[in-house]
Amino acid sequence: MALLAQWTMRPPLLAFLVLATLLAGCATRPPADDPEALAEFRQTNDPIEPFNRTMYDVHEGIDRVVLAPVARGYRAAVPEPVRTGVRNVLGNLRSPIILANDMLQGEPRRAGDTLGRFVINSTLGLAGILDVADTWFGVPGHTEDFGQTFARWGIGEGPYLFVPVLGPSNPRDLLGFGVGIVADPFVWFGQGAVVDALTYGRGGITVVDTRESLLDPLEDIQRSSLDPYASLRSIYRQRRQVEIENRLNDAPPAATGTGFGIGTGADGQR
Amino acid sequence: MTTTNRRATLSLACALATSAVLAGLPGLPAWSQTDVSRAANFIQSTGQALVNAINDPRPSAAARREQVAAILRRAVDVEGVGRFILGRWWRQATPPQQQEYLRLFEETLIRNLAARFGEYQGVRFQLGRTQRRTEDDVLVNTIIERPNTAPFALDWRVSEVGGQPKIVDVIAEGTSLRLTQRSEYSSVIQRNGGQVSALLDAMRQQIQQLAAREAQSQR
Q1: Chain B neighbors of A224, CB-CB under 8 A
Q2: How far apart are the first and last CA of chain B?
Q3: Dihedral sign, Cα of residue A72, residue A76, residue A82, residue A84
Q4: What is the pTM of this model?
Q5: Is there a contact between B184 and B85 (Cβ–Cβ < 8 Å)?
Q6: Is A164 left (phi over 0), alpha (psi -120 to 50) or beta?
Q7: Average pLDDT for consecutive 10-residue bins of chain B (219 residues)?
Q8: Which residues of B touch A235 (CB under 8 A)?
Q9: Is residue A134 classed as helix, strand or coil in its secondary structure?
């Protein structure tokens, strides 16, 4: 996550994104005498669609050459139980952030679940490799992030954004993503070359693990949708709403709280 | 062990306050017993028929797909779903375009679903909670289990159409199929200058690709 984040959130790139957003042509707003078209325009919430589509194409290019092949290689080379262990460790490392957000949202029961899971899985679960809190105690994990907390605090999502590598997002969730990295104790824990290597390693593995979990669902969208960009946008926004309202009972993706990590109703992603 | 018990055990193990963990089970919504149980029974029997067809080892892949398609045609309100998905463009389409759209939509939907379910060999499903959503909609939760894959939630929206319960939407992990597809189709039409014919062309092309893939998988 850290690698992805530091790459994505580096000031020059962020400034470029903002500038490009301002310079890019905006989507044509339908005329006022077409209320249905106007309602759909508001519903879709993508006023900078032309810019977003360009970013989507950029992402597709990166994905085709780097992300997807690496994820496929990872799936082919690493046996499934090992990949599950890796995913469990990543999810366990996210626990402090999930716990903080459970509490910031005033959810003592979910906070209790997260804390209990962290304690149990870090010890009995051999540093998070085994999710014994789920398998032995029947307490499955859930996902939380600062974007969801901001939403619960009443902050609007803002216009839809597509960020290369990160995936579908919006200003609120992008900010939440940044806060999530800064607030992550494991990013600040210790210093020196070994710690740096671990932090970057975790970031890199998170990217690969996330992309691997999305191989099937994204392929499915590419294959079955007449407009994958529009499908992804719709899926992301619906899915995000369900997550904010805590209506999903299934376990969290180990990955990030925005973008592809949650965007696609990941098949088999736990 | 019930969920509550297991939660309590964990809390004990962690020396956590159990009160927070046990607090507040969500209240059940008011429902009308007959309709809800009828919808649940309908999904139970349709789901069982689908699972049997998918797991039947005897017929060829093509025959199996045809069986799945036949069950879906009976169970899904294809016309209602198709009209919902075309949304505001339905009235802008000419009557022949509407007819053509419904024909293409049925073929796309059935082929897509049949192809997807066809890959689910070894699938099992469990009926979960059923709840009334609106005056005429009932949501039936199911959990789909496949070998070597984490189980996932699939919810079925059931509505009475002509006195019969019919599937009007499938919700996978919180994502509604008909809402997603409405977005997709509307985007195709908008990006082609508001021409419904552009969508029909794209759908025709997609059906050709699907058919080609089916022919390939048979070999």
Answers
A1: 112, 206
A2: 48
A3: positive
A4: 0.80
A5: no
A6: beta
A7: 53 41 38 67 89 83 84 91 93 94 92 78 83 81 82 86 89 89 94 93 92 74
A8: 175, 180
A9: helix
